[in-house]
Fold this protein.
Amino acid sequence: MKKITLLLSLLITVLTYAQSPIITGYIDSTCPGADGRTLEIYVDGTVDFTDWNIVRQSNGGGFTTTIDISGLGSVTDDFVYVTNDENILLQEFGISTNFIVSGSINGNGNDGFQLNDPTDAIIDRFGEDGVDGSGTAWDHLDSYAYRLNGSTPNGGNFNPANWAFGGPNLLDGEGLCNAGTVFSTLVPFGTYSPTGGGTASIVTGADVANLFYFEGNFDPTNAEGSFTVQGLNLTEDITVTAPTNFEVSLTSEGSFSNAINLAETDGEVPSTEVFVRLQSGLSAGDFNGEVTASSSGVTEVINVSGEVLAATPQLDVQTGDISGLNYDLGEGPSTEVSFIVEGQFLIDNINITVPSEFEVSLTSGTGFSNNIEILQTGGNASETVFVRLASGLAEGPYSGTLEVSSVSADTETRTLSGNVFGEVTNDMIITGVFDGPLSGGTPKVIEIYVVRDISDMSTFGVGSANNGDGTDGEEFTFPETTATAGDFIYISSEAPNFNTFFGFDSDYVSSVANNNGDDAIELFQNGTIIDTFGDINVDGSGESWDYLDGWAYRNNNTGPDGTAFVVGNWTFSGINENDDDTSQASATNPWPIGTYTTTLNTNIFDITSFKLFPNPVSNGVIYIESSIEGEFEIDLYNMLGQRVLNTHTSKRIDVSNLNAGVYLLKIKQGSSSLTKKVIIE
C-alpha cells in the first residue's frame, strides 16, 4: 500500500510540475507615458489562473505590489500577457487575445516580478529580491529581458544567466509609437520554447550613430561606440564583421580589426559588448554601413554611422541664450553669468563682442568691456567668459546679441536679455480668488484690480504657492500692453468653463491660476512682491483664509499689502459654498466679481514726492526727503513678510538694529501709502 501511495504522489508531482506557468519576457516600453509595458508568461500544459497573482518589486524595495491575474482564465500551452496598454500591445506586437490590462505593470528597467500561485507559493521570479537592478546583469532600462529556451520556473531563485537582455536604452526612439522600428522586430515575444533547443537566434543591441573625429586628428574616444551581441541555440560561433571604413573589437580603444569571433558554448554566446569605430586616416565625409553578426542559419545587422569632420576652424559656445541679467535702478551691474568658449584648428584668436548695454570679461568681477579676445595656442583655445548687464542704465528691458567669432570659423551668436527695474508703484492689487465648482474644480480664477494707469504691464507678474510650499517667483508675466485705472483683469486656469460660469472670457489663461482653496497668490512688480493673498508657507486647509470650492474677496479700500497678508482685509464665502453651482447667475452665494472699489487711486503717494537715501543703507539710518507735510507711519517688512519695525517720523528711520538684507518699506499717511524696497548693508 505504501508503494502505491508513493507512486501516486510522484505522479501528482510530475503532473503538477508539467502544468506550470513561467515568466518569459518583459518590455520596458519607451512609448509616451511608458504605455505598452508588458509582462509575458508561457503556460506549459493547462493552468487555471483563478487566484494567481503577479507581484511587482520597485527599486529593490521587495516584492510587495500584487496584481490579480485571475482574468486570464484557463490557458493551455500558450503565451499570456499582462500589459498597461492593450492598444500598444496590438499595435507593436499584433497581440489581441490572452491578455489582461493592469496599471501596476509599470516596472522600470530596474524592477522585478514574481509569479505566485493561489497558495501564495512563489512559482517563478524575475529580478533579485531587495535589489535595485540598475547597473546589474539584469538591467533592462528602456529595453527588454527574455527567457532562454529550456529554462524552467525557478521558485524564486532568479539567475540572470537564464535570460537574454537587449541592453539598456535599446528601445529609445523605437516603436511605431515613436515613429521608429516596430517593437516586434526588436523584442522576441512569443518565441520561448520549454524544451530547449529551438531556432538559432542572435540578439543584438541598439544601432550605433554619431561617431566622429576631425580629419587628420583621429580621436579614439569620439570615433568609438558599442553594442551587444548574444546567441541562442547556435551550432557555430558568431562572426561579427564591420562594413567598409569601420572596424570592431572586444576591447574599448583596444586592438581593432575587420572581423572578430564570439565563441559559442552549449549553443549559447553570452551577452557580449562589441566595440565599433571609424577607421583612422579617412577623408572628411559621412560614413555608414551595417555590422553583421552571423552564425549558421542566422544573421543580424547593426546599423553604424559616423562622420569625419573637416579640420577647419571650429567654435563651441557652451551655453544657450542668456536671460535674467537684471538689477534695480541705480544698483547695477547685474549678477554675472559664466560660460565656456572653446576653439579648435584656429588660425587666429577668438573675439567676443556684446552691445553697449552689456559687458563681458575673462575675469569675474573685473576687466569688463564690450569686446574681449581669447588667445589661441596651437590652434586651440578654452576660456570661461563672464557676461553681465552694465551699470548706469535707465529703467527698462534690454536685449542684444553676443557674438563669438574667429577667422574662417562660423560665427556663434547668443541672445542676451535683462531688465533694469524701477521702484514699485503699487498700481495693481489682488482683489479676488475663486475655486470653481465645474468639472475638474474649474474655473479657478485670480482677479486683479488696476489702481492707476499702467503704460507697460510686462513689469508685473503673478506667482502661486501650492499647499504652503512657498513660491518660485513669477510664474506668469503680463505681456507688454497697457491697462487703465479701474480695470479688472482675470487670469483663469482654463477658458471654456470660465465663460460657461461667468458669461464672458477671461483676459489670460495660465497654470498660475490652478489655485485650490488652500493656495496663496503673490503679485510682483519688477521682481518685488507688492501684494499677497494667503500665507505662502502655510497650507490654507482649515485656516481662516480657506476658500475651498468657494471664494475670497478683498474689502473695499484695502491693500496692497506687500508680503504681509492681512486676513482682516478679506471676506470669505466659506468652504464648499459654491458646490453644485453651475453659473454665477444661479449661485446662491455668488462670487462678488468686479465689485471692488477704492479711493486709493487718488490717494496713493506719487513716487516723485519722496526720496529715501542712502539706498543701500550703510550707516544704520534712512533719511526721508518729501514735499508732503506731516508725520508718516513707517512699517518695515523682511522678505518673509514679517514686520520688523513700526515707527512714526518725518525725517529719519533708525535701522541700526536690523540685520543686513533686503526689506520692503511701507510709508503711510491717512489712507495714502507707498511701498519701496531698501537694502541694509
